[in-house]
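Quick one, tokens below:
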């Protein structure tokens, strides 16, 4: 699977640009603030239906413009796909070969893994970063998990709207409780299914995770994970255990949810702890070790995706090489060369890795929102 070309119209700092790509290695070269990450984001957005950066639609559209348009052509399993995303201030529309589709539909058809400074820092950042890591992993395990994630988010949005209406005095307490009780069975069921899917994915990744960590760090220190649900490690929980824990917590926090106007129970509140030598990596690891853990996690995700689907995902490295020390950088480049997939790299200073030949590489210079080939 690989991008053949892209056209960008009024996206971020791009006015009108287009580019063609190598099926192997593509380098976006330029100074900071010129649009390298924006171009990478445009590709990811057409392929996955959402951005890998936190941004409202209005931030994706060029200033003083009403909409932006992204079009790309992807080759996958000997077929050519035309992808298009229209971005308006209040919504996005995605199209696959001219047919309107959802972001979940795109994720079930196409796969991409992003390495970014934000992902490398996710251990010490908030739990939402780690949940995003796990949910990306879920879709690698089973494409139908994209639908599960989407369904849970819809249920959560509905439940939050009910609670918010009560806080804003748009609904009385009796009717609010009736509405919450009516939605809770499906909300808790979806929450339990998503939680179990996350736990199963983490359990399935552990072997490759440890292998990748040894490859990157050249030591035998064990890495493992804990899935934190209501303050306890739920990695060994059964489906019934998870549902019972969510239901119990829902009763315990009922009054707090009514007071705050937001759902406090569910997988959107869970956390993942990465252990290094049986110690919490948030507190006992150096920044370099934390980066090695997440880098190994992403590498394991790529390996598993290949085992599960007989194809590698497209890889996107956003200014990652400069974040790594020489040993980890060399290990990553060796790993990348050994896998047969399309790779995109953003950088301010490019030197061709010895393992790649010139005919495998396309270098695009990015300057003030323009692509120079």
């Amino acid at each position: 699977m690989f991008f053949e070309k892209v056209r960008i119209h009024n996206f971020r700092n791009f006015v009108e640009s287009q580019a063609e790509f190598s099926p192997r290695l593509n380098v976006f070269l330029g100074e900071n603030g010129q649009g390298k990450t924006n171009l990478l984001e445009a590709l990811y957005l057409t392929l996955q239906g959402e951005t890998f950066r936190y941004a409202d639609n209005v931030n994706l559209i060029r200033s003083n413009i009403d909409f932006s348009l992204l079009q790309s052509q992807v080759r996958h399993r000997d077929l050519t796909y035309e992808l298009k995303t229209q971005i308006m201030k209040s919504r996005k529309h995605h199209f696959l070969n001219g047919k309107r589709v959802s972001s979940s539909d795109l994720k079930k058809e196409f796969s991409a893994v992003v390495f970014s400074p934000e992902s490398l820092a996710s251990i010490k950042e908030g739990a939402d970063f780690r949940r995003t890591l796990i949910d990306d992993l879920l879709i690698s395990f089973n494409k139908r998990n994209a639908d599960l994630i989407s369904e849970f988010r819809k249920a959560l949005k509905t439940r939050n709207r009910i609670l918010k209406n009560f806080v804003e005095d748009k609904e009385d307490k009796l009717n609010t409780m009736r509405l919450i009780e009516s939605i809770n069975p499906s909300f808790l069921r979806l929450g339990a299914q998503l939680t179990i899917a996350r736990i199963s994915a983490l359990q399935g990744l552990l072997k490759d995770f440890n292998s990748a960590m040894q490859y990157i760090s050249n030591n035998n220190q064990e890495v493992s994970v804990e899935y934190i649900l209501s303050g306890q490690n739920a990695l060994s929980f059964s489906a019934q255990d998870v549902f019972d824990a969510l239901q119990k917590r829902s009763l315990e926090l009922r009054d707090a949810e009514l007071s705050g106007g937001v759902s406090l129970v569910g997988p959107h509140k869970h956390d993942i702890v990465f252990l290094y030598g049986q110690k919490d990596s948030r507190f006992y690891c150096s920044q370099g070790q934390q980066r090695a853990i997440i880098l190994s996690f992403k590498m394991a995700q790529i390996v598993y995706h290949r085992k599960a689907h007989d194809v590698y995902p497209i890889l996107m490295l956003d200014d990652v090489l400069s974040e790594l020390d020489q040993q980890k950088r060399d290990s990553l480049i060796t790993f990348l060369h050994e896998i047969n997939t399309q790779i995109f790299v953003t950088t301010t200073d490019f030197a061709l890795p010895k393992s790649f030949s010139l005919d495998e590489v396309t270098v695009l210079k990015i300057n003030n929102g323009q692509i120079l080939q």
